[in-house]
Specification:
Blueprint (H helix, E strand, L loop, with lengths): L1 E5 L3 H10 L4 E3 L2 H6 L5 H14 L3 E5 L5 H11 L6 E6 L2 H12 L4 E6 L2 H10 L3 E4 L1 H6 L4 H15 L4 E4 L5 H10 L3 E4 L1 H6 L4 H17 L2
Parallel strand pairs: 1-2, 1-8, 2-3, 3-4, 4-5, 5-6, 6-7, 7-8
Helix pairs in contact: 4-5, 5-6, 6-8, 8-9
The structure holds SN-glycerol-3-phosphate.
């Protein structure tokens, strides 16, 4: 399973990259706004900075909701860098645009996926990635991880090439469960990635090793 970071923070991207485990980045308009990035040229310049930091794919989301607008925005976004993937919402016009992008060699990430039916449609349209939102499904008292299982099973049976990019990850447990459920990629906040490091027995064990070493070397 590949690891993407779900942020527009350059500091968080750098920290994850320094760990040596970073395969890509996803962003969305809310994450850009959180970093205070606004205005078309500033947003594009920020995407360029992100693309220069990572070798892997960087999802850049369109704002338009009509076919012509989505295609026009996507064409501009892919000019920023070769590792840009156009993030398109799971709506009727979005599916039409994903088909157009696919037919024209532009890679896409279909976002706001909440059901297996939507995942099938995006795969049929030729999406490179789909982003099922695990945390937001959980928020509605349904099971986000079960959705990943279901989509992975369908894609395997049908032989779809579209990759499952588990999104809306809220904690480290979601990462482990995504890996177990057949996600190809997980996109997470830095806190959830760092949370994977934590185990009290590791801390206790290391303290004991270091104390014993100090005792016998003093
Ligand atoms: O990038 C989309 C997704 O990861 C958003 O997560 O936490 O806002 O539901 P969240």
């Amino acid at each position: 399973m590949r690891f993407f970071i779900d942020t527009a923070s350059l500091d968080h991207i750098k920290e994850a990259r320094e760990l040596g485990i970073l395969d890509g980045v996803t962003t969305n308009p809310s994450l850009m706004a959180k970093e205070g990035i606004s205005g078309d040229s500033n947003i594009k310049a920020h995407y360029k900075k992100i693309c220069d930091l990572v070798d892997g794919d960087v999802s850049a989301e369109v704002i338009s909701t009509d076919f012509e607008g989505i295609v026009a925005e996507g064409k501009e976004l892919v000019k920023i860098a070769p590792n840009i993937v156009v993030k398109v919402p799971m709506i009727k016009e979005g599916i039409r645009a994903i088909r157009w992008f696919s037919d024209n060699g532009i890679r896409t990430n279909c976002t706001l996926v909440f059901s297996a039916g939507q995942a099938i449609l995006a795969a049929k349209a030729g999406a490179t990635y789909i982003s099922p939102f695990i945390g937001r499904v959980d928020d509605t008292n349904w099971d986000g991880i079960q959705l990943i299982h279901q989509i992975a099973e369908i894609y395997a049976i049908q032989g779809y090439d579209t990759e499952i990019l588990a999104a809306s990850i809220r904690n480290s447990r979601h990462i482990v469960q995504s890996a177990q459920s057949g996600a190809d990629i997980v996109t997470c906040p830095l806190s959830a990635i760092l949370g994977l490091l934590k185990h009290p027995l590791t801390d206790i064990g290391l303290a004991k090793f270091l104390a014993d070493h100090k005792k016998s070397n003093s």
